[in-house]
Amino acid sequence: MDQLEKFFKENQVVQDSERIFVREFMIPLIGLDNVLKYLKPQYPFIDQTGRERRIDFAINDENFSDKIAFEIDGESYHAEGAVSSEYFDDSLFRQNELVMAGWNVLRFSFTQLQDPKKREYVSETLKLALRKFTNLVSSKVHGPNELQKKALKALAYTRDYKKQNKGVVIMPTGTGKTYLSAMDMKRYLKSKGKSARGLFIVHNLEILRQSRAAYFDIFGDDVKLGILNGKQKENLFQSKVLFASKDSLVSKENIKQFKPTEFSYIVVDEVQHAAAKTYKKIFEYFKPQFMLGMTATPERHDRKDIMELFNYQKIIEFSLNDAIENDFLVQVEYHGLTDDVDYTKIRHNGFKYNMEDLDRYLNIQSRNQEILNKYQELLQGSKTIAFCVGKSHADKMADLFNQNGIKSIAIYSGNDKDDTEKRIERFRNNEFNVAFVVDMFNEGVDIPNVRGLMFLRPTESKTIFIQQLGRGLRLSLGKEKTIVLDFIGNYYKVNRVREWLSNGKKKKVRGSDGRLKEVYDYGKGMKVEFSDKVEQLMDQQSMETANYSKQELEEEYYVIKDKRNGKRINKFDWINNSNIPLSVIVKQYGSWHKFIESLGELTESSYHYPQGTSLGHILYIMQHLSNDERKDTLISEEYVRLTGSLSKSPDGKDKKQRQTKYKLQALMELGLIEDARKTHSNDLILTKIGKKFCKTFKPLLDNIDLSMKTKGSWTLRQSEDYFNTQILNYIDTNKAAFDLWVNLMLNFDAFVQYLHVIYFEYRTIIIKKKKLYDGFFESPFVRRYIDNNGIKESKGTNADHRVPLLNNIAASIGLIDIQRSTIAVKKILLNSTLLRISDADNNECINERLRLAKYPQKTSTSNEVEAMKELFGPDFGTKNFKFNSKDMIIIEE
User: Which positions, given as ranges, span the membrane (predicted)?
Assistant: First the structure.
């Protein structure tokens, strides 16, 4: 008999409801040992009549200052006629007796313990109630969510393969940046030995407190976490991780206490503030082995400063829409409401409005009353944060709401610090419906159950707008969406708000009046509505996401596949052909890749990343196809098995068929022969481009040595360098051949990824082959392609058989020199695809980047210089850039 069964038997816990409560709720929360030690079934107490009664379960121990009673209604409690009115009244009497005796009482029904939706409520309620019992709730290590998993891989790739010692992670508020940093720092410090330490820098004391709590969750309570701020100095030198406010850390008396190499890993939170002088001193003084900057989506000018400080190393970036559509944040119902204030009367210095004018014009009775009316109409008592102009505005709004029976409080930095913290805590603990704040809660304050936001002043910065929006987007029990009321007047913010809320995509459509207008795509996680006075009411997007079963999702996949003539579909095919949001698949399966894997629809990686293939093999096949000579060759019918199974004869024919298949898959991916995934046959049919290739390269195919070392073997007599040189010499003297060869390769996705890795990730002239082979399939850029297209994993030594073809292609164009253990980058080949950073980039941006690429060492004031630095590194546009105009091959389309 195990310990739990013994516990049930000894204490006569026989009802299923009570056993479920212990096994499925209390043990996961406080652990079996604590259940056996502290949870007391059938706990006796005396009521005011002197009668002894029993509590179903109780925690009442001298180790805790509080006591709690759990009452579990049994299976038959709610059955019709099962409970008499006398029994029911006595049950209420017993509950009242417990409350009067100072017990915290929680009561759950059998239905609540069973129903999936109600079980979540039970768990969250228990967690909240047990917070008072110090060290009772087990401190579980938080596992990474899907966004964090991708970011952790990208962080490892940045250090291990790109060999960078700093970088920036851009993730929306509420997606777990702090926990991500804790997970990464923990594994990094562990790899560096016991003496390795970390530093977490913040600019806000509330963020410091919350971040430290998150690190305790990940590192565990037995690890010392130090504090350095204006009030406290704890464990400055004994801690594993020190949490410091920037202002305290930068003071001479504090910073000089630490060696420049004191910390192996430094995190700079909300790094958009890092351009401030105080941060620059910190950057200049400390020399960590790795430094991580974290921020939500920054504005363009913030981004420039941030990327400059971190050597233009963007580790990974997720947009607000990514997080909402993948259910890491709740959905948004945004109302852009009319604000009748005339902003033309308010002084503006070109950057922001005059604060005194704003307070005078916005803080008026009629406007404040309209805000109250809209709150009552749309938010209806929901817990809300309202962002105000100034202290007077916040105080007046709180007074007005209180006078109308809505419990409200004003919170701003002018309050005494202790008082401010108490006010925040009271709002956190649900004592108030609305908090009217000034320069607070923009960042770092986590109150997940906020359901409403009110923007009561013009938000002139994208960073602040996104941060304020993020205050309401965290996931919380029973919360499906956040309602945002934004009061918009006649200032230029309107269009920018649409841009900030959208996922960067917009299109021009012709309205009923015959005029063109821009329509923004807000994604399926946002419902955006502007009043008629602000803008024509936009088409309302559905907020309802149906509950699709896995079977329905699988059926939908095959319906789309059938529409596409049996071709396996990728993520983008789904988005363009299905009304079911991609977020439904992510929620059900974890990722698109896992969905495709469950269907058995993953594409062989050899199609996309040809294995064991050289340029000589490609030329050999094309030579025989151009001459229509397949008999007695390695591509004769007996060796071609693109569909169907391989032979099982003992003569090794299956091995030759497999090798032939790999070579032919390469030609399919290059578009030279028809794809067997479409034709479902073993026929080898030249495509239009394949026929053009045969004609353009005929002189080369007729004169090159394509013989094999031994008959029947795929081992070529000549070296790979021979074929690279033959192709290079041929295309150097034949422009038509050059254009065809280069465009053929730029349409080969694996080669585009290869160029991205060597140019934008490694950013160096000499690259070790081993580093390239080990790191290629770890690149976030490559990983994203693999995930989006449902490709089987290609790890370990597989890269040794796939990446060499990409090296050879680059050498055949004159982009690199291949040496024994390294490659040397000689030239840079670019087209519009390679210079596209995001889907929001328009043709004008891309064309400007192509223009800048022609003169890579020339200083320019173009807006796109920062984008080029983000790709090539901080030296682009300076004399220090390693490549000049002669080294650039620009393909304009």
Answer: none
Can you read off the two tokens belonging to residue 47? 């009521």
CATH node for 325-530: 3.40.50.300
Mean pLDDT by 10 residues, the chain (893 residues): 84 89 86 88 87 90 86 59 67 86 89 80 82 65 80 94 92 87 95 95 82 86 86 90 92 91 94 70 92 78 70 86 83 85 69 73 83 93 92 93 95 74 88 89 70 87 81 81 81 63 61 52 82 50 47 77 67 77 80 82 73 92 90 85 70 81 88 79 87 96 93 91 96 96 93 95 95 91 84 64 93 96 96 86 90 93 90 94 95 80
Unique residue bearing structure tokens 């309202």: 386
pLDDT value at position 219? Answer: 87
Which residues contact residue 786 at a Cβ distance below 8 angstroms, ignoring those fewer than 6 apart?
Answer: 593, 605, 777, 793, 794
Q: Is the torsion defined by CA of 855, 861, 866, 869 positive or negative? A: positive
Specify the pLDDT at position 279.
Answer: 77
Q: In what order do the strands lie in the sheet with 104-108?
A: 40-46, 52-59, 68-72, 104-108
Instruction: Indicate the pairing of strand 816-818 with strand 822-825.
Output: antiparallel
Calculate the alpha carbon distances from 618 to 641, 662, 665, 817 in Å.
17, 11, 10, 21
| DSSP code per residue over 150-180 | HHHHHHHHHHHTS--SEEEEE--TTS-HHHH
> How large is the C-alpha radius of gyration of the chain?
33
Q: What is the model's pLDDT at position 544?
A: 34
Amino acid letter, residue 65: S
pLDDT at 239: 94
Within 564-614, where are the H helices? Answer: 571-577, 582-589, 592-598, 605-608
DSSP 627: T
Cβ distance 56 to 113 under 8 Å?
A: no
The answer to whether 320 and 297 have CB atoms below 8 angstroms apart is yes
Of 858, 862, 866, 850, residue with least CA distance to 884: 858
What pLDDT score was predicted for residue 873?
93
* Residues 653/647, Cβ–Cβ less than 8 Å: yes
Q: Is the pTM of this model over 0.90?
A: no
The CATH number of domain 146-318, selected from 3.90.1150.10, 3.40.50.2300, 3.40.630.30, 3.40.50.300: 3.40.50.300
pLDDT at site 26: 87
Half-sphere CA count of 257, side-chain side, radius 13 A = 11
φ/ψ bin of 87: left (φ > 0), alpha (ψ from -120 to 50), beta (otherwise): alpha
| Residue 715: other Cβ atoms inside 10 A | 8
In single-letter form, the type of residue at position 547 comes to N
Give the SS3 label for residue 433: coil
Asked if 379 and 484 count as a contact pair (C-beta separation under 8 A), the reply is: no
Lookup: tokens for 303: 């981004």
With b for 16 or more beta-carbon neighbours within 10 A and e for fewer, the 208-232 pattern comes to bbbbbebbbebbeeeeebbbbbeee
Distance CA 87, CA 96 (A): 14
Q: Which amino acid appears at position 845 of this protein?
A: C
